[in-house]
Each structure stands twice: as C-alpha cells, then as structure tokens.
C-alpha cells in the first residue's frame, strides 16, 4: 500500500544536498553568505588561509582542505563576503569562537541539526517516505469499517488491516516529527529575530507541508470516537452487580466486588484513552476471569455476563455523548507541556512527546492555528472535549477563549533575543541583564552550558553560580549579568597552570594522615593542599580536554564561600573529580592542637589552630543525636558522591570543641576544603613542632638519641613562622605558639645538659 521509492538521492556525511542560488550544491546545514548575521556582523574572528587573493578561508588551522605549510592567520570582521569564501568543511563548522559567547551560541544554533538543517527538513514530501492521498484515504476507511466488526478468520482482510494500521502510525509519526522540526526552527528564530524575514518563505513551506500531514493524519481519527472517549472519562463509578450469580466463579463476595471494580477501571481507562470503537475494548472482559481455568464451571457464564456489563457502559458513554452537541463550537488555547530539557542540537524528541493517544487525536482533528515556538495551539472543539481539556487532569494546560486569538509575531525587539552584550561579546561595562530566554538559548545551543558562571548583581555582588541556580533566580525576578563562564577564563593564567598540573602518579600506598613524616616538608600531607587538589581533578579525567575542563571548573569553584551552593540536584554540573579537587581525601590529623592529657598515645601539644580555625568542614551528618553516622561527601557509602545542600557545614574549631562525634570509620566522617598554601604551611609546622615535643617527652618508654643542636635549629625556624610570610605579624594564638617553643627550647637545653642514659 505504501510506495517506498529511492531515486538516487545524493547524500554526503548523512546530510541532504540542496542547490544554492549560484547553481552549486551545498549541504543543508552549511553556513552561506545569504544567512543574515544581524548584530554579530563585524565581530572579529580569526581565519587561516594560504597565500593568494582568492584563497579559500578556513576557521580551523587543522582543516583538511588547507594543504600548505605557509599559512597566514588573520583577524577579520565577520561579513557575508568572508562567509562566502569559507571552504565547504569550515562552512559546516562556522566561525570558531567561544561556545558561551553570543556569536558562539548563534553559530551553534545554525549548524548541525540546528536551524539551517530544520528549514530544509519536513518542507516537502520525502521521496524515501511517501504515500498518496488515495492510499491514506483507503487505509483510513478500512480501519473505520473494522472498528466495530473485525473478522479475525479472514487472513487477507487481517493483513490489509495490519498494513493500514502501519500506515496510520507512519503518517502520525511523520506529522509529529514535522511539528517538532517546525518548533525547533521557530524557537531558534525567536532567539535571533533578525532571521525572521529571511526564513519566512522556508517556514511557510514547512507550515504548508505540516498542515497537509495533519489533514492526512486526521483521516485516521474519528471525531465521534473522541467525543465518546471524553464522555467515558466523565462517567462516575456505576452500581456493580456483585451479587449476580453469574460471577460466583470468582469466589466470595469480596473477590467479586474487587474484580468488578478492577474491570470497570480498566474499561474506563481503555475507553478514554483513544478514539477506537467498542470492539477494541471488548477484550477487557477477559481481565475479570484472569487466573481461572477456561474449563471451570461458571467461567463461560462470567465471561458472557462481563461482556454484557461492558456493553452497558459503552451504551451509557454513547448516550452521554449523544446528549451533547458534537459540533466544534468552543475555542480553547492549549499549551503543550514543557520538557525538563528543551530540544537541543541533535535531539530526536518532538514537541508532541508526552501526549496520550486521545489528546494527540484532539490536536490532530481540531487544531485551527499553532505557534509551535511557544508550544501554543488554538483549538475549536465540542463541548464535552473542551470540558475534559479544561479539567486539571489534562496533560495540556488549557483555557477557554471567546474566539480565536490572532497569532503573535516575533518582534525585532524581542526581549529574549541573543545579541552582543548579553554574554561576553562586549566589555563588562556594556553587559545587559540576562533573561530566562537567554539562558534557555545558552542551554539549548551551547555544548559548554553545564558549567559555572561568574555573575554580578547589585543584590549579591560578584558570585560563582551553576547555570541552574541562575535560571531559578531569574524566574524569581533576579536582575544580574553574566561576567564569564569557565571556558572564558583567560588563557594567560590558565594555560601555564594546566601545563604544570600533571596527572598524579599511581602510588602503592594510600594517603596518610599521621605525623610520622612531619619532618619531610616537601611531601608531608601534600595531598591536602591546593596542588594536590589540582592533581586529583585531572587524575581520572579522560583526555586533555576533560582535564582542562575540570581545572577550569576547579579554579572557579575555589572562591565560592560555601561549596554547598554548587549543588543543584542536577548530575553532571560538577564531576566527582572536581569535588575531589575541592575537598581533602580524608580527615585532618588534629593531634597537635588537642590539649595535653594523660593518654600518652593521644596526647596533644595544645597548639593554637591559628589559620586552620576557620577552615570549612563538610559532613553528611554532624549531629551525634541524629540517627546515622556522619560521612564525608566523598565517602562511597553516600548515595551521590559530592556535596549537597543538605550536608552540614562546620569549622575545624568545632571539631575540637567536643569529642562525641559519630563518624564513619572508613572515611573519617568528614572532608575539609583544600588547605591554602598558608594553611598547609602552618599544618606542617604544627606537626613538626608536635613531633619535636614527642622527642623531648620524658615519659616515652623509648626515646631515640636527640641531636640538641639540630632541634634548636628547627625550633628557631618554627619561631620565625608567620602566616602568609609576613614579618612582625601577631596572628591568632601566636602567644601560645611562642610559649610552646620557649618551653621546648628549655627542655632541649636541659636534655643537652643531662642526656638520657
């Protein structure tokens, strides 16, 4: 029944070829000189070319069509003439710019499966998927005649019905995909309204083809069946004949009541879910005797009685439908449900996904006008259908209208248009407030969208926020600008650091947290510092691009006051590797800062916390009275590794204020933020001082020989320690630090005079 003819269609790399105005063939997703550049015209871009006035221009130095060693790199303004000189491969890519810039988003929205491809797709019947009007009409009439009386014994008729149903699904599917394509095209133009006039002829062709598909799809939908389905959905639970002897085979009265109630709900669900006739729902009677042998006495009687009961419900639904006017008289504005993620480049979902079969039939049959970019349809439907659409249970968001509303055009001053000054195409001084539409364009058309951004607002100042947090704030009326994204950080700073950070070498031993190596300044607890965090962020990354991406995110996140603000409940914003770069791999050894005690194995030196006092500590549960142990955000016992908004925030000083913490024995219970260079320096100095105190402890069972001169030299060096290498600085707890050093000097001198035997 379906013609499926291939006529030698030429394709290259999976994309269709179309004839350009000059007569040459170009790919349907290629950037050409006729595409309006709008406010991005004149933007400086870097191009590469061989010598020669008429040499082709390339946006990538590694372009395969640039076959010369003598290449010139030039910065030129982006114009139609420059685009016209792009080689075919670079015209596919478009100008190479930062993906989070306005021009980068514009280029991404045009290429690939973006606007240039969508304007060519679903604009006319496809030679590979084609059917005639007569074939569709015949298939629809066959299915309509079979809805009330199907002859399963006639194999030829069964095969014809199967082919008709297959054609029905193919027509409906193509209509859905065409609507999705038009939606994607119109959505792009809504962000870049200067494309409106240029794209209008192509959009009109797509709209015309979509309407022809809708008309053909509507042939398969029976309007009367949709009205009956709406009536069935409104029926209340009827009185069920639980005491009918015909149902005795089901068991006692309780089982009969349960079975009949289940039968009613299954029938109503089937009746309200489409437009098919009673024959398609007659099979539900078998649900009543499910699990009962067919040869059991009473089985046939129960089945026959269930069939008559279902027929009575069918008659009731048809009577309710007949009691109302089935003429479409009610105007309804329907908004299609929003996806959690808008259609993006390469996304195969269509705008009608999520609609049940009945709603899809209503849209096919009674749509008058449609604004696919805003997911808004204008319907003219019968009263019963309108009542169901306006009910809260409808998958569409609908409201009644007095009459059809005229379609709203896209204004050139559309507030959601992406122009220079929204992202990073201008100086910060000229930056414009970001809107919800801007952020939607960023998420839809930029592959670098899921990252952190530096934003500025008068209410919060400069902040580092994930994209999803910015979206929530904008929805609540927040007014701010995007200063830069992670990919926009200056290469002059990031480049040398990225080259310096090499993947951490594999070690046989895991990280240690004791003070037995306190004398080795260069290696002791190095994995707690910022450098160790950078190595952790790239250790498990796959490829140089992933390593660079992790380090850029790490650099932005390090300045966030509370790391829990980076949790958005959305996976993929920060990888586990970045969290490992922000947090220490285990708990800190705070023995040097504990008060001296009688337990010689856990005896502290009473050193001040100093710069370590305000260091942040994160744990899943820091309340010992709350059920469950506390875990590090990186502990494998937690559901999702990484910080969450619900985690607890402490300071190092809080850890020494009590000793009843209920920590996980595997991870230590918490993770600290990576230590700054000053904090790591003091942490090492404190452990070295505590190590010296241990060497001079008279109560130790065994004390190795002490080199007093070496100890005095070490104590002199520790006495000169200052935070941030500042001289003559009184820091928090410095008096206690110097008091401990003076005491150790006296003990070292006493040991020198009276060495142990």
Report what the structure shows.
The protein has helices spanning 80-84, 88-93, 102-110, 115-120, 133-146, 155-191, 196-218, 223-234, 253-272, 299-322, 357-366, 383-390, 436-445, 467-475, 491-500, 530-539, 544-557, 576-582, 652-657, 677-695, 708-719, 734-753, and strands spanning 11-12, 15-19, 25-27, 44-49, 72-77, 330-335, 367-371, 376-381, 397-401, 452-457, 461-466, 481-485, 616-619, 648-651, 671-672. The protein has 757 residues and is an alpha+beta fold. Helix 8 (223-234) crosses helix 10 (299-322) and helix 21 (708-719) packs antiparallel against helix 22 (734-753). It is flat.
Helical amount among residues, as a percent range? 25-40%
Task: Report the portion of residues in β strands.
Answer: 5-15%
Number of strands: 15
* SS class: alpha+beta
Uncertain residue ranges: 1-26, 340-346, 407-413, 507-516
Strand numbers in spatial order across the main sheet: 7-8-6-9
Radius of gyration: 36 Å
Keywords, separated by commas or semicolons:
9% strand, alpha+beta, 3-stranded antiparallel beta sheet, single chain, 22 helices, 4-stranded antiparallel beta sheet, flat, 757 residues
Strands, helices and their partners?
Layout: E1 11-12, E2 15-19, E3 25-27, E4 44-49, E5 72-77, H1 80-84, H2 88-93, H3 102-110, H4 115-120, H5 133-146, H6 155-191, H7 196-218, H8 223-234, H9 253-272, H10 299-322, E6 330-335, H11 357-366, E7 367-371, E8 376-381, H12 383-390, E9 397-401, H13 436-445, E10 452-457, E11 461-466, H14 467-475, E12 481-485, H15 491-500, H16 530-539, H17 544-557, H18 576-582, E13 616-619, E14 648-651, H19 652-657, E15 671-672, H20 677-695, H21 708-719, H22 734-753
